[in-house]
Structures are given as C-alpha cells and as structure tokens.
Amino acid sequence: MSNATAQRIITHMNTDHQDTLTRFLEHHHSLPSHLARTATLTSLTPTTLTITTTSPPKQYTIPLTPPLHPSLTDARTRLTEMDTASLAHLHNHTPITLKTYIPPTRKHILILALVALGLFSFTYPAQFHPSHPLYTLIWRHTPNLAATLSKERNARVGLGLMVGIHAAECVLMHFRKLRVLGVETGSWVWWAWMGSTFAEGLGCFERINGFVKGEVAARREGKGKGGKEL
C-alpha cells in the first residue's frame, strides 16, 4: 500500500468532503449529527477507515468489506458508494451541504421592510388614529384598514397571527431545509438563517432553493466533463 496515496486521499476527504465523513459516522455508528460534525479521517487502509471526533475525543473504525486493492486505486469509487449508501440510510440528508448564509436580495430586503412595518403596526396601534402623524403620512390612504387595526384587540390578533406564521416558517426551515442540507443546529449559519426566516419568511426559502438548483446544475456539468468523485 502506498502511504502517499493514503495520505492524499485522507487530506482530500478532510478538506473537501468533511460532510461525507459526518454521514459515515451517523450511518455506521448511529452518532448524532452534533457529535459527528467534528469527524476527521485519520487512517485509511485496504480493510479499515478510521475516523476521529474532537468533541468528545473518540476514535471510530469502519470495516471495508470487501477490502480495497492494496494500492488503494479503488478507494474513491468505494467511498462514493459508501456515501450513497449513507444518504439512502439517513433519508433526510442530501449530498449538497449548505455551509454559509446567503444575504437577501433587493426584493427580499423590501419584503423584510414590509414585515418590519407590519410588526411595528401591530405593536403600536396608536398610529392608526387620525390624530397621529403616522396616520397622516401612511394610513390616511387606507382609512378602513386603519380603523380596524386601531382597535387593540384586532392589533393583538394580527400580531399573534404574524408571529405564528413566521414561527411556523422557522420550523419548516429547520426540518425541510437546514437539517437536510447539513447545517448544524445552533451554529452561526443556523442562527443566521433562522433569524432571517423569522424576519422575512419566504425569501429565505427562495435563496436556498436557488442555491440547491445551482449546485445540482454544477454537479451535472461536472459529470458531463468526466464525473465528480469524492
């Protein structure tokens, strides 16, 4: 076995495919995602993968059956097959990993401003009275709506509905997007997306969907140029 070949594969996996190592631990050792996130490939032999975690410090081995060729020439193909099997077993995972927060576009900033205006409106019903300066500036153009929202009970109901809808969007974002795309719960990326989802809602889903479509297209293009293995 070539130590140089093994080290090259180890370095490549740790640098570019750490999410794959995480899935290996989740699949083969039933490790929770928050513990598997620190997975590092430390050894590769024809018969065994050795992966360690730093929090908590622990070493895990995954047998390779049948063994790899002594020269490890088939290692990348086998690792790709193992990752495919891990994805099939885990169900709620995808080979695409979201590693950063994508800031809002101009359209989404406008939506964010409208949501902020709505929250402010429901928490400050005094502005809907004709004597208030904001009524003269904004709400005089919609007097019937202003009259409805000027009632404190209606404002509370509106605020509750708005908060409830955005909270539901956060739940969907966590389970349908962030968790599936490998975003660690509690990480700064997770907090950024969750906070932005509560503030602007559907704009976050649009940006993530655009990211996924771009990644899928890039991977298809890569396969067209000879394939993209681990």
UniProtKB/TrEMBL annotation:
<dbReference type="InterPro" id="IPR019595">
    <property type="entry name" value="DUF2470"/>
</dbReference>
<protein>
    <recommendedName>
        <fullName>DUF2470 domain-containing protein</fullName>
    </recommendedName>
</protein>
<keyword id="KW-0812">Transmembrane</keyword>
<keyword id="KW-0472">Membrane</keyword>
<dbReference type="InterPro" id="IPR037119">
    <property type="entry name" value="Haem_oxidase_HugZ-like_sf"/>
</dbReference>
<dbReference type="Pfam" id="PF10615">
    <property type="entry name" value="DUF2470"/>
</dbReference>
<feature type="transmembrane region" description="Helical">
    <location>
        <begin position="109"/>
        <end position="127"/>
    </location>
</feature>
<keyword id="KW-1133">Transmembrane helix</keyword>
<feature type="domain" description="DUF2470">
    <location>
        <begin position="6"/>
        <end position="82"/>
    </location>
</feature>
